[in-house]
Amino acid sequence: MGRYILKRLGISVIVILLVSVISFTLVHMLPGDPAVLALGSEASEQDVEAFREKYYLNRPVVEQYFIWITDAFRGNLGDSITYSRPVTTCLAERLPRTISIGLPALILSSIFGILCGIVSAIRRGKFIDNLITFLSTIGLGAPQFWLGIVGIYIFGMKLGMLPLSGYVAPSEDFGQYVYYGIMPILILSFSLLAAVARQTRSNMLEVINQDYIRTARANGLVETSVVYKHALKNALIPVITTIGLQVRVVVGGSLMVEQVFNIAGIGTLIVSAINGRDYMVVQGCVFVISVFTVLVNFVIDLLYGFVDPRIRKSWR
Amino acid sequence: MKKKVAMLLTAAMCVSLAACGGGGGDKPADSGNDAGSAGGTEQTAPPAESGDEGGDAQADAGEPVSGGTFTVAITDDPTTLQGWMVRNTNEGTVSPAIYETLLKYDETGKPQPYLLESFDADAEALTYTLVVKDGITFQDGTPMDAEAVKWNIDYYKENGVLSGSYYNYVDSVEVVDEKTVVVHMSSWDALFDYGLARTCFMCSPTAVEELGPDGFNEAPVGTGAFKVTKWVHGEGIYTERYDNYWGGTPYLDGVNFMIYASTATQQAALEVGDLDVMTLSGDSVTADALKAKGYNLTNAAIPTTGYTLCFNSIAEGPLTDVRVRQAICYAVDAETICNSLLGNGVYGTSTTQWAIPGAATYNDEVTGYGYDVEKAKALLAEAGYADGFELTINFQVGDFAKSVCQIIQAELQEIGITVTLNQIEVANYADYLGEWDGILFHPMGLGNGQFSQVAANMIPGARFGGSTFLHDDVSVGLIQEAVASDEATMDKNLKEAVKVLFQDNVELYAVAVTYSTSVTSPKVHGDYGAVQEHNATWNQLWKEAE
């Protein structure tokens, strides 16, 4: 098992490096001069040149990358070209907001998504199945900004029950955090829930028709035991994969939700950084998101082994 | 089941449409304004004339009351609050509440002494003499005196983001006495006052030195009516009133600048009372919707943007012929474009140059080119292009620019010119400023006035149009003489240069100038954005009690 973990860790480091190279290359390929964008078209040529020098923008791209990656592994992600502040400071301000919205959304969607998927599968063709399928389709198909605008209109403007936008940190005032956060969390979790529910349903349907489930029933096991002990455990691996893929939302944020509900998180930071060609911030955000996603997927890989003994065996 | 699904879908669609539609009929309970009339401070005539209308309406609101917080929308975190680094819209929205400038534009766009008692130019001696008003202090209690002015001008020249553009000719600054400063120029710059009015926010030297530039960025100190108490990055900036403000203690307890990224969220926040003001430019759809709901609309007297067809007059092709450029101007119906896209001229107007009638820099002799398709066809035929030709119009992404360019595309088709539209992403737009193919539909910022833009941009070596404009001896000579002359000569020369550029050589064709429209809650009274966008008479703004 130790060898397996080491091998996975090695692959994770390579993936992070590759992601950083690709994102660095892509962002530098975008047309537009960050110095001109930062200073405006009125700035004189010497002002622009001085700015380029300050951020190494006049050096070859390969050299810029090596300066950046060397500093990154020392914990220094450089200074934002737009905000003239350390990228780590920008991230430290934005990450907690994104996580405090994304994490509850992920937890809610995972729990209720799996539950909905199970109910939908065991009540296949019944009203509840149709309802869950219909809502899942909306959750997957409807853009989050649309759901957000509809939510704001109904609960904020018409009913006046919830605020239109804004954010309060849970550490500041937990009640206010829930009050401001409930709508974005629910909207974000709705889409994630839909994906998890669909995945769980289809896997459960596949498993439920297997011979060993029929045998379990024939042996007189109670239905809850059949469903949760035998069927769900076998249906869970693809579901865990789906949840693992959604984890990036926790740290990367959902741009749409952040935009509509006016939450200054990582999603909005990345977009404004791309628009402003703030290479340092884009790189810093991508680096943090990729590290987080790779680590979570590493944990998920380990989790497979605990869920499925066959995988655990293959590690030996 | 199918029926149920259909009904659910219909209901969802209705809710969606209602949410997106802006809900025309609702009015704030206490607005009191007739949606159809020019109520509140809404301006339907040229803005400079209609300012009084707003004043009368506000006088009826009763006696000002103290207290309350005024919330202003910004679209993103300001990139900086260091006065010498301010350049973009968001910090430009926040800064006027905190900082003030030595000179300030009047309604005609002319810089007038503001923190100064007097501002005297001596072109022959290459000096500007500045006398500071009595009794002005920074928010940290230190005096705004001659030493502070010297420190600021020196600091701007050394560290300012636009130092190369505005303080290039400042040689030294001499403190004569407690209130008097003499700025010695290495070469005469007749537009120095425009630079001081726009880009020189007075910062407290003591605060900068004590806090350092980074610390000062988080807790800036100016002479303005409100001082920053907290900057929550990504959320907004909180201020409280400065009780010793030289213009009189402000009525409001504080002004907060909160981030609302989109117009839609700003509009929704305004409607539920989370926001007191939002600013629109060239967005007549939102402006009309809010006007209909009883919100007060105020246009800035100084236009914000001059949307201009900038011709590449030197690259080989039809545009090198002045008759072709004239024909294009005759074929574009600017008045109809403005009427249809800018609320019948309420939010912007057609004009012949980068200024509107009544402005200090407006040249009456530039008569422009009226809409005349037959004349356009005749000029094209005369130039040898009776069968038309192909042309590219480049424009920066944006709803207004796109609509205008699409109309122009159709209008030029009428005279046989086939136009290809090239939409340019904002971040990429700067790459087009030096050279472009065909025509660039450029949103020229007019906050600094026509003279400043002509002098800075229409000369050889300028970053804008350096490789596309004619830069003929006449216009360049006029501009160069103007910036090195006294005020009267500068005025005369630059007006002549405007005529050469817009009328005689047709290097530029102003399709529309737009005003910045401040939309304020009916509970708010006082001047916000009446003269220049984002600027207010801060200490006199007040808000009705909740």
Break the fold down into its secondary structure elements and pairings.
The complex is a heterodimer of chains A (316) and B (546).
Chain A lengths: L1 H28 L4 H6 L5 H10 L6 H13 L13 H36 L4 H15 L2 H15 L15 H35 L2 H8 L4 H30 L2 H6 L5 H10 L3 H29 L1 H7 L1
Chain B lengths: L1 H20 L25 H13 L9 E6 L14 H10 L4 E3 L5 E3 L2 E7 L4 E6 L13 H14 L3 H4 L3 E6 L4 E6 L6 H8 L5 H14 L7 E7 L3 E6 L12 E6 L3 H10 L4 E5 L2 H9 L3 E4 L5 E7 L10 H10 L2 H8 L6 E2 L23 H10 L7 E7 L2 H16 L3 E7 L1 H4 L9 E7 L4 H8 L15 H11 L3 H18 L3 E7 L1 E5 L3 E2 L16 E2 L3
Parallel strand pairs in B: 1-10, 15-16, 15-17
Antiparallel strand pairs in B: 2-3, 4-5, 5-7, 6-7, 8-9, 9-10, 11-19, 12-19, 13-17, 13-18, 14-18, 20-21
Helix pairs in contact in B: 10-12, 16-17
Low-confidence stretches of chain B: 12-59
Give the % helix of chain B: 25-40%
**Roughly how many Å is the radius of gyration of chain A?**
24 Å
Order of helices and strands of chain A: HHHHHHHHHHHHHH
- Greatest contact between two chains: A-B, 53 and 50 residues
Per the principal axes of the C-alpha atoms, what is the gross shape of chain A?
A: globular
Could you list the spans of chain A in which at least 5 consecutive residues all have pLDDT below 50? none
- Structurally, the number of domains of chain B stands at 3
Give the overall pLDDT of chain A as a whole number.
85
Anisotropy-based shape of chain B: globular
Query: Mind telling me the C-alpha Rg of chain B?
Result: 25 Å
CATH architecture of the largest domain in chain B: Roll
Written account of the structure:
The complex is a heterodimer of chains A (316) and B (546). Chain A is mostly helical. Helix content of chain A is 78%, strand content 0%. Chain A has helices at 2-29, 34-39, 45-54, 61-73, 87-122, 127-141, 144-158, 174-208, 211-218, 223-252, 255-260, 266-275, 279-307, 309-315. Chain A is globular and about 85 Å long. Chain B is globular. Chain B has a 6-stranded mixed beta sheet. In chain B, strands 1-10-9-8 form a 4-stranded mixed beta sheet, covered by helices on one side. In chain B, strands 4-5-7-6 form a 4-stranded antiparallel beta sheet, covered by helices on one side. Chain B is an alpha+beta fold and 546 residues long. Chain B has helices at 2-21, 47-59, 89-98, 146-159, 163-166, 192-199, 205-218, 263-272, 284-292, 322-331, 334-341, 373-382, 399-414, 426-429, 450-457, 473-483, 487-504, and strands at 69-74, 103-105, 111-113, 116-122, 127-132, 170-175, 180-185, 226-232, 236-241, 254-259, 277-281, 296-299, 305-311, 348-349, 390-396, 418-424, 439-445, 508-514, 516-520, 524-525, 542-543. The chains are: A mainly alpha (316), B alpha+beta (546). Chains A and B meet through helix 2, helix 3, helix 5, helix 6 and helix 7 of A and helix 1, helix 5, helix 8 and helix 14 of B.
